Amino acid sequence: MQFAARGRKPRVFCGHMPAVRRLSGCEKCPVGGYGARWEPFSAPLVFQGLPPVKLALVTETYPPEINGVAMTLSHLVAGLVARGHGVQVIRPRQKGEKDVNETRFSDDDGASHWLVPGMAIPMYKSLRLGLPVAPTLQRHWRTEPPHVVHVATEGPLGLAALYSAAKCGLPVTSSFHTNFHQYGGHYGLKVGQDVALRYLRWFHNRTRCTMVPTDEMLRLLAADGFQRLHVLARGVDTRLFSPSKRSDALRRAWGAAPKDPVVIYVGRMAAEKNLGLAVEAFLRVQEFEPGARFVLVGDGPEREALAAKYPHFHYAGTRRGDELAAFYASADVFVFPSTTETFGNVITEAMASGLVVLSYDYAAARQFIRDGENGYSAPFNDRPAFLTRAEAVFRHRAAWSDIRAAARATAETITWGAIIDRFESELAAACAVVKPVASGV
Fold it and tell me: What is the pTM of this model?
């Protein structure tokens, strides 16, 4: 069976508020963050009694890869399968999957996987692209057509899926996860940024809808000519990421005394993450907090150079699951100066872990952080302001206890259930199982 399905009957809305809905949930499932808009609709949309949706999810990143896109997609897939939908994940074989001999198999959640040929990304060997296997996709989809194809990445495999779905007459939705058009400036390729933006716009405007993680991203992409944009927020696993995972033993391993502050960064160690600013902020803080420690979790092309220049930092490499949760919870301040995020799942993971978060005021930080109440933020891409804010965070340590508690309380409202509700409704609308819902555009 190519489309695995199990679990209870699915539904679209949680049922807390049958007469109104939010872009990403209801009042009791407030995923959309503070100030989200409310919209009326004529009747609640449900799948009860209707056939399950068969989804082909095409992506070039998925676990065991560790990044925000892979994590988000795995939550969506697991949620859909648990609600009775059939999901086939079409993706390249990832690094670390050499022990997987089959090209088609089912995972522990019940989704089926079809591994296609891939290749390493130039300048980023740890990530892979799927090859453009359009003829293979067309043969498969003509034999076993899904109800809808969702394309999560815009690489060669995603492009092949977009073309093949059109040839087979299948509806296509997409999601915008990564600002690839902004990456060029970090790799000396500024001349290609406009070309990348034009390609991304062309790609997504050929789908029935493009799902974006925030209202802010919707407005930015709409201004660049992207059409049919719908908001699909992201959740956080507050059972996994929790202050209860704090480990004194781990802090001792970092050389931190009980009252020494630990700063942590979690994410790819790559140019587009603006790690130089994180380092500069920490070094400035260390001038008046000599006991401070800096822990960097993750891997990437910048790690070797950083380790050579700053050997006194703690480089933890890639961590996952309970181990990653313990690293978060055992720190005190999470610093994240990236300017290329579409959302930034690490922001909400850090908040769920009860950390004091410092980030630029955009994406997830703008959606969830109230400056000085449950975290700190600096004006977007304002380097001097970020450094000044970092100093202020450490000069007001007396406020940390309240801020950490408020961050955790905010994270507890960011549920995956309401987001899967929304994803269900978008897929059903695209394949005409139900009428489309309002997009909020």
Answer: 0.81
Tokens of 84: 């009775």
Spatial contact of 399 and 293, defined as CB atoms under 8 Å apart: no
User: Peptide bond before 64: cis, by omega within 30 degrees of 0?
Assistant: yes
Class of domain 243-411: alpha beta
- The 10s digit of each residue's pLDDT in 315-349 is 999 999 999 999 999 999 999 999 989 899 999 99
Lookup: tokens for 419: 């987001």
Q: Which CATH number fits domain 20-235+415-430: 3.60.130.10, 1.10.10.10, 3.40.50.2000, 3.90.230.10?
A: 3.40.50.2000
Hey, is 31 helix, strand or coil?
coil
Residue 48: both structure tokens together: 């009860």
The DSSP code sequence of 111-163 is -EEEEE-EEEETTEEEEEEE---HHHHHHHHHHS--SEEEE---SHHHHHHHH
How far apart CA 130 and CA 186 sit, in angstroms, is 24
- Name the burial class of residue 319, with classes exposed (0-12), middle (13-18) and buried (19+) by CB atoms within 10 angstroms of its CB: middle
Task: Give per-residue pLDDT as tens, 49-75.
Answer: 346 899 999 999 999 888 889 999 999
* C-alpha separations of 361 from 324, 347, 371, 387, 389 in Å: 25, 11, 9, 14, 12
User: What's the gap between Cα 295 and its chain centre?
Assistant: 22
